[in-house]
Amino acid sequence: RMEPTRKRKAPEPDRKGKAKVTSGGASQQSSQLSQRTQTSQNYQPFSKVPRTGDTGSGDSPSKRSHLSSFKELPPKDEFQKVLYAAGVRFGTDGSIVVEDPVQMRRNLERTTQLEADVVQVLKNGVCDVVDDDDLLKQWLRPIVSLTRATRTIGLAGAGSDSVLKILLGVQSMQAYIIDRLLEKLPQLIGDEDADSSFGDNLPRQILSQLRWLDNIVESQQLTTKIAEVMKICPSWLRKEIITFLPEIIDDFGFEAIVKELQLQMEEDSQYTVPILDALSNLNLPAELLEQVLLSVLRLLKTAQVDDLPVVVRFLLRSITKSNVEKVVAKIRTNLEFMPAGLLDGPSSSRTGSNTKKAGETLTLEAIKSGMRFHKEIATAFLKAITEVKHAPEHKLIDIWILFLLHSMGYKKNVETLFKKKITAGQFSQDLLKSSLHKHSVSLKDYFTDIMALGDSFLRCAEVSIRAFGVSVYIELFKEFREKYHRQEILGNLVAHIGSNVSGEIDAALEILLNLVTNLGSQVRHYAVFIQGILDYIEALTDGQIRQVFQVFSELACAEAEHNDAVSDLIFTDLQIMIQKQLSNPSDKYKKIGIIGSLTIIGSLAKASGSIDEGTESEGQGVPQFRQLIDSNLDMLLSNTASSTYASAFLYDELVVLVQCNVLSPKIVENVKSWVENDFMETFLEDLTKAHDGQPPGTGVAPNPEESNPRAWMNLDDNEVTANIVLLMYPLLEKGRGDLLPKLCPLLRLLQTCYKVCLGTVGGLDGVLGCPVMLFLPSAIGNFKSANTQQQERICLALFYTLSWFREIINTFAAVADVMIMKKIIMRIANIHEMETMLEKCLASNMGMVQMLAGFLTNMEGKTVVIDKAVLKPRQKKGKGREAMEQASEKEASTLESLTPYVDVLRPYFRELELHTCTILAYGSNFEARSTQQSHRVKTKLDETVEFAFPQLWFLLDDLYTKLTILLVPPKKSTFLVPKAKSGPKYDRLATWNAKDALKLLRPVFPALCEHLERVARGIDTVENADQEPPLVEPSQPNNDHLYLTPCLDLIFSIFDKTLNFGELHADENTGLRKEILLSISDKKKTASSSAELSVIYTEAFNYFKQFAETVIQLHSGVLLLTLLSTIADRADDFDLKEQVSLLAGSYLKTKWAEQKLKAADLTYCLQQYIRLGQDPAGAIKTLVYEVLPVVVSNEDQREPNEVDESKNLMTLNKHTFVVYFRVLLTELVAAFSCVRAALSKVEPDGIDSMLGNMVVCCDIFHHLVVLTQSRSLITANVIAACLRKGRVFTDTLIKAIPFLSKQFTTNRRNVLKILEISQRATRILQALCAHSKINGMVSMVSVTPALKKSLEQLIVKVKSMMIEHKCQDALVISDVMHTDIRGEEVLSQMSGEEEEEEDN
Predict the structure, then answer these.
(1) What is the CB-side half-sphere exposure of residue 642 using CA atoms within 13 A?
(2) Which long-range contacts (CB under 8 A, 24 or more apart) does 377-384 make?
(3) Quick one: pLDDT at residue 1051?
């Protein structure tokens, strides 16, 4: 900044004609020159050079003393004379003194204008100065001015320039001096370098003279000269010239210099940073700036990492609202970073890696700065990331940008976008890992925001989002290794575990267990922070408690053999806590202790390698571990002996540990020995010692006076086996019923030990067919007359017998033997029979349901919730054939309605394991499937095992239940799973994932096709039978035909559930999907494994379609339609979808046997008929114009009219009219909304067609609304549907008014037709509103006001359009009249006045 020049008096000359210089003034000037020299020497390279002479001016004595020896020299030549005349004085020491710099420039300007020869003299003099390097340096120094007032010499001030800078202000000399100075630069290339200071760097001093010139005479010439000089200068000097350009070039030279800089930037990337720095300081026009942006965007992909911050900063600072989306899209597409695996590779040095990481950090800062500077950039980035629809198109920069936006306050937007992308599968865990792996330095400032996103993901209900949050936490712990970061991560995990939200707790424990397993040595140092989990352990589930103890066991046993102090401390604390839990008298705390102790045993066994027999002699830690294992087992047995529930829980938990094969064979053998002894001594007895009795169904009449228990369901009568019997009822009679809860766990543990020790369960064959000692058969018939204690014993005996048979099936289901399989199927029949008995007992005394629930809650620790509706007494609906007909008309997919009380307890029976579903693979022609071999082994043809339909239904229902739990789509919330199917007894199923389960069930699907064909044949046989079925009770064996339709429904539902599973259609599961489909299509032997998926889908579709004529209930038909629709959607075949539509239409025309069709079934069938048809609009039009009016006319006239058979829908009557009406309105409104949405994108050629579609939609709507005036069919449901959908239709029409207004001039006829038809329909809607008000329809209160508001808005919009086009008479618009459904006007006060008159 220049200081104003003060007016000074002229110096007084001495006798020699020289100005007098005081010693003080010389000292001050000398000091100032010394300070200026020191300041210039401290100049840092590659920084902007300050303007010459930018130092403070002062007149202190220290500055004046330096020039006390100044002696003036007389002018030597004409050049010095001209300057002397202008006010320049030359000293003997080479210093130059100027009386007044401003006056000097004015004098030279005046002289050059008056005397032409002076210009040449000055040019010659300047040429001599430039040619002499030493002289040039003197002339480049700041001038010394003579202060006239004080007669002292000093620096001219803060704005002092050199003599050459003053000469550059002379217009006639400027171009010449610039050319000479620029031409001098190439001559100094060998003498100077980039590291020299400003005072010693002559090229920089020369360039500084060209900065901030008041006026440039030849701007174009200057630009051209600089461009020429830059081409022959070294790189460091070229960068200096580029840096000086914004201070040298004026606005007239911008275009030329920008083109030159663009060319250099494209040719050599090393000049990118200085060029962009220079361009950012230029005030470029909009067009020129757009060209620069395009040029820089092309270089973005190839720019070096350390250049990216400057490039990105320039792009974001130069952005405008018009090109912000384009520039952001280019940045997102072309911005590439070094892959994580190459940052710290063996070939890269530490310095280079740190440089690249610093470049990434600065680039992120540049992006963040740009988004703060322009809010539109943040919005554009969010929009660009949102519009990406495919996972491969997402890049690492997308994740980073979202991290930046989250840190800037866009938390809600970022979290919502993240969750949508994760749910859609567009953000993968691999993308997340690549964005964090080895990028901790770059993302260090955003650690808190990343962890906050992880917290949000863990709290989400969606499984896929929680899994993404798990990956976030795991990667954060791996990459951020500072103590602070890891403490924060573990502290947050502990907080999530204490949140009391099941999904959040599971995710946090999964993270912690993963870290302990893979990074245990690093996590052990933070064990103090993890121990806070133990404060929440009482509120956790069994699985969560198991994970908690597994975490601590891994930490305690990971390096225990090395006598690690931390591990010993953790192990000691665990042992103390477990002993406290086990010694607690409450079973709740004993359960925690059991889980903890067994978890420690498993970890000790893994650490010691006890599975190998030879490892005991290796290592010092193994004997110690063996001792700890034995002591923990002894502690468990001693502390659980007093509690039956605790013992049962111990056995079930011990099964899992034995199955893991971590215990040594010796330990397993010991466990087998004492379990076998306990089982045989407590629950088994020789049949000869037991009381003789006849099982039910033998034809022997029981003695009513005999009270001894009887042996039931003996399957070993004709075999030479050990005659043993299971004591069930005798234990209850003796008051030892508390032992029964551990019966099934004992058997499960025993068969597991047999498999591990012997490889087979052959030693347990005797329990498969052994009878069960129960009560007398007559006890069921006399249940009501028995006392409460006897009733409780009977119900408990039935309950535990059912669980026993289920555990028997679990034990022997995998054995490939014909006789064993026959007994298993007979046991399934026994289960069905026992359930029927239990249902009768519970129905006779509903208090027994509460008794069993209380027993399970108190004795076995299970929480049983009973629906109050179940406890209400059921009304008898008839006997004999009437009861059978009502049972056959049930629309449920299972027969659960026959046993509502047993259904309450069904989830608490012993759980059937997943491998029991493979029993279905044994079809009518028995095929034994060996568990040791992957192929199926056929037995003799005469060895057949045939399922009865009740047994088939039992297995199908269990399979469907398991698939419902396993194949839950990720987008569905967990509450959609039925409560009865998600009970506590499905813990074993939770250990399976969907993919492994489907692999296990692969042999089942071909067998399901065989069962489907068998069921279809059974249905055809029943339908074609001339004689009526016998009148029997549902509990009798010959009521198998009642199970035909439920079995059919379950098979359809199982296939639909499987084929609709999303993960099955992933690329990695193509083989499994193909195999399942081939198992279906192979039934017709038309598809091979090498066939295309489309062909296989078509064959599967055709296979199931052949059963369309088999269904005898609409609900079964709907399930078949659902299955066929799933196959058609997955195949994406329009022809298959059209066949589904035709089949749905045929079902609508079928007269079903059900007295009352289910509304949901009819709705789905009608929707499929409309949506999947070739012409949905035509189908709606036909139904509204031709079908519905006939029904209305028939109901009104009481005389049926003739109707075309092809259009006669047998499912349409006065009861189902409301369903048809509601579906047609819904589909019409949806179609009209699609038409309205397409208006903005319609081409001019398609406007007439679009308006025609709108006319059709409005006319159909009018016809539907007119149907509500039928007196016989008008109901509250019809009016409610009309008003709700009428409001949506009206709102859609209001949104289309602007488009209609634009087309009014060119398509006046169609627009007026739309409005006229809509006017007639809206008048009826208004009448319906009045009708609902007059008749006091409370359900319409929330609908009517909103509809009236929409009608008023439509009137206002149409009136405004008519006024705009000056055609008010084209459409008669009146105010909304208060009329009833018959069109008669109703005054709002009429009803009240009439009542008053009647009272008077």
Answers:
(1) 10
(2) 377/316, 377/319, 377/324, 377/328, 378/405, 378/408, 378/410, 380/324, 380/325, 380/328, 380/329, 381/328, 381/332, 381/405, 382/410, 382/413, 382/417, 383/325, 384/325, 384/328, 384/329, 384/332
(3) 93
Structure token digits, residue 1035: 């509990």
Two tokens, residue 531: 């121990």
List, in sequence order, every residue forming a beta bridge with 153; answer none if it has no partner. 146
Query: What is the β-pairing status of strands 96-98 and 144-147?
Result: parallel
pLDDT tens profile 565-578: 666 777 888 888 89
Token reading at 113: 């204008």
DSSP state of 19: B
* Residue of 875, 712, 870, 688 lying closest to 780 (CA atoms): 712
Q: Which two tokens stand for residue 818?
A: 């014909």
Confidence at 27, pLDDT banded by 50, 70, 90: very low
Helices 542-557 and 587-608 cross at an angle (nearest 10°) of: 40
Angle of helix 1004-1024 relative to helix 949-966, nearest 10 degrees, comes to 130
**Length of the chain, please?**
1400
Alpha-carbon distance of 1046 to 1039, in angstroms, equals 13
Distance CA(1143)–CA(1141), nearest Å, equals 5
Tokens of 784: 């009501």
Element housing 685 (H / E): strand 684-686
pTM of the model: 0.73
Question: Cβ distance 1009 to 1123 under 8 Å?
Answer: no
Tokens of 161: 């320039």
Kind plus residue range of the DSSP H or E element containing 1103: helix 1093-1105
- Helix axis angle for 1217-1237 and 1247-1266, nearest 10°, is 160
What letter does residue 1186 receive in the DSSP assignment?
I
Beta pairing partners, 727: 773
List 928's β-bridge partners, or say none: 937
Residue 944 in 3-state DSSP?
A: coil
DSSP states along 480-508? --SHHHHHHHHHHHHHHHTT--HHHHHHH
DSSP sequence for 826-859? HHHHHHHHHHHHHHHHHHH-THHHHHHHHHHHHH
- DSSP H helical ranges for 967-1091: 994-1000, 1004-1024, 1044-1059, 1070-1081
Other C-beta atoms lying within 10 Å of the C-beta of residue 131: 12
Please choose, from the candidates 607, 1037, 1092, 560, the residue with its C-alpha nearest in 3D space to the C-alpha of residue 833: 1037
Of 952, 946, 919, nearest to 1051 by C-alpha is: 952
- The span from the CA of 508 to the CA of 551, in Å, is 12
C-alpha 435, offset from chain centre:
17
Least confident of 81-85, 747-751, 981-985: 981-985
Q: What is the pLDDT of residues 445-466, one digit of tens each?
A: 999 999 999 999 999 988 889 9
Span between the terminal Cα atoms of the chain, in Å? 101
Q: How far apart are CA 1349 and CA 1343, in angstroms?
A: 10
**905 touches 983 (CB < 8 A):** no
pLDDT tens across 799-811, in order?
A: 999 999 999 999 9
CA distance linking residue 435 with residue 428, whole number of Å? 11
Nearby residues of 156 by Cβ (< 8 Å), 6 or more positions away: 53, 57, 98, 101, 142, 143, 144, 145
* C-alpha 663, offset from chain centre: 40
**Separation CA 1228–CA 1236 (nearest Å):** 12
The predicted pLDDT at position 89 comes to 82
Mark out the alpha helices in 1213-1246 (DSSP H runs). 1217-1237
Q: Using one digit for the tens of pLDDT, what is the confidence trace for 127-178?
A: 888 888 888 887 888 876 654 444 445 444 434 678 888 888 888 888 888 8
Cα atoms found within 13 Å of the Cα of residue 457, Cβ hemisphere only: 31
Residue whose token pair is 């054995």:
815
